[in-house]
């Protein structure tokens, strides 16, 4: 590349601190998401058509790619549409809220995961734990305890759909997408009421 | 006719990867004053058209093509009475002109015929190959090559730089 050509590649490159380039401003996204710092780690929260589609410990690239495929490719990082979700989550994590007043869309879940996750708030209660086997019985699949465990582990809407309340038959915490420390934190939080 | 399911990346990934390129190209084509406006419009158009895309290939080139069209529109709209062949030069002499790096080059680029100016900004600021430039200008790669080489020759003589 000649000297002139390399000068051309730098044309319109603004000096630092002066005439900064501007990021675009777009209307409310089909899928809006934000990264939210909580005591149990950074969570990716996403909303589509007024319903929560993700509350997850998964990484940004993986989650937004899944949302683009499952819901709409018009996925944007926008905090404002998630104000209410963040507020309710913060209240819950501070111990001042026991139930979420949010609509959930399990667009990221498989049909079986939907079956397991949809009624979780009614099959569990704040401050109490249940077992994989009990949840399996609740959905009329009494032999599917292991599959229920896998479905809960893939919960795309963590905390809001309280998969942390489900533990092993012997009371062991077993596993959690946000790590066992997060699960312990949530169960301790609910035990304090 | 059935359309194959295209797996498009999240739009935010396009913004994060390309917003600087879009902003620079828009400013290089429409000038520092109208450029930001053109870039914003380009993103709005791209966002509106995105879900209907039939291919997830060359998204950067697609964005820069939209940017080039918006830059042309915004820029021409300032002086609508002029025929297309005499599109107005970019407004490099605004209050901020002195703050832009390489003002001599800006001025020389500004004085090029419009097609040449667009071709070299797409090629060098947009970093597109001749196929990309041709797509954005609705012409052929051979024509793009010619526009760029003519533009470079003019710039060399105006700026007094040697062939190196």
Automatic annotation (TrEMBL), chain B:
Domain of life (superkingdom): Bacteria
* Gene Ontology molecular function: any one: sigma factor activity
Where does the RNA polymerase sigma factor 70 region 4 type domain start and stop, copy by copy? 105-155
- What InterPro entries has UniProt attached to this entry? RNA_pol_sigma-70-like (IPR039425), RNA_pol_sigma-70_dom (IPR014284), RNA_pol_sigma70_r2 (IPR007627), RNA_pol_sigma70_r4_t2 (IPR013249), RNA_pol_sigma_r2 (IPR013325), RNA_pol_sigma_r3/r4-like (IPR013324), WH-like_DNA-bd_sf (IPR036388)
On whether Transcription is a keyword of this UniProt record, the answer is: yes
Q: Name all RNA polymerase sigma-70 region domain ranges.
A: 14-79
The ranges of region (Disordered) come to: 77-96
The answer on whether this UniProt entry bears the keyword GTP-binding reads: no
The protein's matches in Pfam families, at most eight in alphabetical order, are given as:
Sigma70_r2, Sigma70_r4_2
Alphabetized UniProt keyword annotations = DNA-binding, Sigma factor, Transcription, Transcription regulation
Question: What is one Gene Ontology biological process annotated in the Swiss-Prot or TrEMBL record?
Answer: DNA-templated transcription initiation
Q: Which family does the UniProt entry place this protein in? A: Belongs to the sigma-70 factor family. ECF subfamily.
Q: Which NCBIfam families match?
A: sigma70-ECF
Please identify the protein, giving its name as recorded.
RNA polymerase sigma factor (Sigma-70 family)
């Amino acid at each position: 590349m000649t000297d002139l050509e390399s000068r051309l590649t730098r044309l319109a490159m603004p000096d630092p601190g002066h005439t900064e380039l501007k990021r675009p401003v777009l209307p409310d996204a089909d899928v809006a998401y934000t990264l939210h710092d909580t005591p149990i780690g950074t969570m990716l929260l996403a909303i589509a058509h007024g319903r929560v589609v993700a509350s997850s410990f998964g990484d940004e690239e993986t989650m937004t790619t899944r949302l683009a495929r499952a819901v709409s490719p018009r996925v944007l990082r926008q905090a404002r549409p998630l104000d209410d979700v963040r507020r309710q989550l913060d209240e819950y994590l501070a111990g001042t809220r026991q139930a979420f007043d949010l609509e959930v869309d399990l667009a990221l879940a498989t049909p079986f995961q939907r079956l397991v996750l949809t009624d979780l708030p009614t099959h569990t209660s704040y401050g109490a734990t249940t077992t994989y086997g009990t949840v399996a019985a609740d959905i009329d699949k009494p032999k599917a305890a292991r599959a229920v465990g896998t479905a809960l582990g893939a919960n795309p809407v963590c905390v809001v759909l309280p998969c942390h309340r489900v533990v092993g038959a012997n009371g062991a915490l077993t596993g959690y997408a946000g790590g066992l420390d997060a699960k312990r934190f949530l169960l301790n939080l609910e035990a304090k009421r | 006719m059935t359309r194959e399911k295209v797996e498009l990346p999240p739009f935010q990934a396009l913004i994060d990867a390309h917003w600087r390129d879009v902003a620079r190209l828009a400013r290089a084509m429409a000038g520092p004053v109208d450029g930001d406006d053109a870039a914003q419009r380009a993103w709005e158009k791209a966002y509106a058209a995105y879900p209907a895309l039939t291919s997830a290939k060359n998204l950067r080139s697609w964005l820069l093509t939209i940017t080039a069209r918006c830059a042309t529109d915004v820029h021409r709209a300032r002086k609508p009475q002029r025929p297309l062949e005499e599109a107005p030069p970019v407004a490099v002499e605004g209050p901020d002109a002195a703050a832009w790096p390489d003002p001599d080059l800006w001025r020389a680029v500004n004085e090029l015929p419009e097609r040449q100016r667009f071709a070299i900004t797409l090629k060098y600021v947009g970093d597109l190959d001749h196929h990309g430039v041709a797509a954005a200008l609705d012409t052929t790669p051979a024509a793009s090559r010619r526009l760029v080489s003519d533009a470079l020759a003019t710039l060399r003589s105006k700026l007094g730089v040697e062939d190196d």
